[in-house]
Design a protein that fits this description.
There is one protein chain. The protein has one domain. The protein contains 2 helices and 8 strands. The protein has a 3-stranded antiparallel beta sheet, with no helix packed on it. A 3-stranded antiparallel beta sheet has the order 6-7-8. Strands 1-2 form a two-stranded antiparallel sheet. The protein is globular and about 40 Å long. The termini are far apart. 20% of the residues are buried. Bound molecules: zinc ion (ZN). Zinc ion binds next to helix 1.
Length: 112
């Protein structure tokens, strides 16, 4: 059994399987997370706030807290999660991911 049967939903790169998060984005895409206005947001593992992670802006070499759990990667709305193993997981917001699928299917069919 392959450990890399999952794919990043943003760039389609193979990622390590994660049964809890079958649709999580790869590390490379995670580095491109931004807020709704396009400013880069970095998520770190954290235990102090009960969420398991904390987002930050990096401004002038200082980390400024980003209090939301929603970010955007390549225009895809994503949600941050605690992965329970000491890391941060980012996945597209579910409604959006499922809403996108029929479109992709339709586009593929339309080519023929
Ligand atoms: Zn990716």
């Amino acid at each position: 059994m392959s450990n890399y049967s999952q794919h990043c939903p943003i760039c389609a790169r193979p990622v390590e399987n994660n049964n809890s998060f079958p649709n999580y984005v790869c590390n490379a895409c995670r580095d491109h997370a931004t807020d709704a206005k396009g400013e880069t947001v970095i998520f770190y593992h954290a235990r102090f706030n009960g969420k398991g992670y904390q987002g930050y802006y990096r401004r002038h070499n200082e980390l400024v807290p980003f209090t939301e759990n929603i970010c955007f990667i390549n225009g895809v709305k994503c949600n941050a999660f605690d992965d329970y193993a000491g890391g941060v997981i980012i996945q597209p917001v579910k409604e959006l991911a499922t809403a996108l699928k029929p479109e992709i299917k339709h586009a593929a069919v339309a080519q023929f």
